[in-house]
Write a structure and sequence with these properties.
The chain has a domain of 129 residues: Pectate Lyase C-like (3 Solenoid). Helices cover 0% and strands 32% of the residues. The chain has no helices and 19 strands.
């Protein structure tokens, strides 16, 4: 078994049931790897590059990711608290979240064209000045999540619920929405629908 704390370059590895809370995993190159049932709480991931890596059923909270890179990364059924993309050493992200719970996350100023947030729960999170064209939000439930100055063009909100998106402040051309959640586009107009 590979010791992630000892190696600086890791490829084609699987890590299961490991608690990396408060661990120093900075400056690593991790590629083509899978983390299953692992915990990352206050983990130091500064300047670590994750490429073609998958996180499954992991708990991730308040990680230190300054200078990190996330290239073709997938999160499946993870609980993620306090993830911030703006400290990362990149502006374009190829990232997928499937069946995840995201709380207090900040995706501001990121370019995430074609991202996936499918069947997720997104709570008290922020998408500000985020490029999200062609993003899949299908089946996702939102609560107290901000969309401001985002390009959401051609994104899919089919069966998504709880979003409040002001079309005067965000680009929504070509988006797919479902009834009745589509009425969330009217929240900023101060009207009542009976």
């Amino acid at each position: 078994m590979i010791d992630l704390l000892a190696e600086t370059e890791v490829e084609y590895a699987t890590f299961k049931d490991i608690d990396y809370s408060d661990a120093q995993i900075s400056g690593r190159d991790i590629a083509f790897s899978v983390f299953e049932h692992c915990a990352f709480s206050a983990t130091h991931l500064e300047e670590t590059k994750f490429e073609k890596t998958k996180f499954v059923d992991c708990a991730i909270s308040n990680v230190f990711n300054e200078g990190a890179r996330l290239i073709d990364v997938e999160f499946e059924r993870c609980k993620i608290i306090g993830l911030r993309l703006y400290p990362c050493d990149q502006s374009v992200f190829d990232i997928r979240f499937k069946g995840c719970k995201l709380i207090l996350c900040n995706f501001s100023d990121a370019k995430m064209k074609g991202a996936v947030f499918a069947d997720c729960e997104i709570e008290e999170s922020c998408f500000q000045n985020t490029y999200l064209r062609d993003t899949d939000f299908s089946g996702t439930r939102f609560r107290d999540t901000l969309f401001s100055k985002c390009d959401l063009g051609k994104s899919n909100f089919e069966d998504a619920m709880g979003y409040s998106i002001d079309p005067r402040d965000n680009k929504v051309d070509g988006c797919t929405f479902s009834v009745p959640a589509v009425f969330g586009l009217l929240d900023g107009f101060g009207i009542r629908i009976l």
